[in-house]
Specification:
Length: 251
């Protein structure tokens, strides 16, 4: 479980997050949604610790994350898997080396042990016979799956994903959504996904938080979202007729 309590964040005197409180549940796919510039990416990066918040609290279970020193945060980050937008694979490293990277940083395992874990994770995301390939030799969907393998290689308790479907076609987007949901349940992780993809919301949004202009406007499940009386949320959902048709058809 991750709890965010009354956090605020500003840049150059401009408020980006205002008094946001939310609980991200263990074993659930928790989605942060909102239009571009709403503050959702800043919220996710604050949870990870890439941004220092101005005030408030970020709790990982019973540990106050923003109260830890550098070494304390480093230790907790070993229990986090992060999937960055664009995958963020190292171009100069092979698939195997990319997935192995967190183990090189945080463990003293032997090469044999690390290679075994890499192969297990690659198999789990359905990547086979690709260990010696470089990211430039992979499709967009394969790069995402390799990035997911890297994110879970340390068996994390927390998985944090920034726009995991960015740049993918609809078929691969559905595949990545399903994989994230399956891994969340399988590893019993607390998963937080930052997205503006309404298909993802309706497919895997067990707990959905809507951010607008740096404030939390609504929270609920994908089953509740169509019943919302929040006009701002409804404007976001039904921004175009295609999205509306998709959501109505799924329900």
């Amino acid at each position: 479980m991750i709890r965010v309590v009354n956090i605020n964040k500003s840049f150059s005197g401009v408020n980006v997050l205002e008094n946001i409180s939310v609980t991200f549940k263990k074993g659930k796919t928790n989605l942060i949604i909102g239009q571009s510039g709403s503050g959702k990416t800043v919220l996710l990066k604050s949870i990870i610790g890439l941004h220092d918040i101005d005030d408030g609290e970020i709790w990982y279970e019973d540990t106050l994350f923003n109260g830890l020193d550098f070494e304390g945060k480093k230790a907790l980050r070993q229990n986090m898997g992060v999937l960055f937008q664009g995958s963020a694979l190292f171009d100069s490293l092979t698939v195997e080396q990319n997935v192995m990277f967190p183990m090189d940083m945080f463990t003293n395992k032997s090469m044999e042990e690390k290679r075994e874990q890499v192969n297990l994770c690659l198999k789990r995301v359905n990547i086979v016979n690709a260990n010696e390939l470089f990211p430039s030799e992979l499709s967009g969907g394969m790069r995402k799956r390799v990035a997911i393998a890297r994110a879970i290689v340390l068996n994390p308790s927390y998985l944090l994903c920034d726009e995991p479907n960015s740049g993918l076609d609809p078929k691969n987007s559905i595949l990545i959504d399903g994989l994230i949901k399956e891994l969340t349940e399988e590893y019993e992780m607390t998963t937080v996904v930052n997205t503006h993809d309404m298909n993802s919301v309706m497919e895997i949004g067990e707990n959905v938080v809507f951010i607008h202009n740096g404030k939390k406007y609504w929270e609920g499940s994908n089953k509740d979202i169509l019943k919302s009386d929040c006009d701002t949320l409804n404007d976001f959902i039904f921004a175009n007729s295609l999205a509306k048709q998709l959501i109505v058809r799924r329900n």
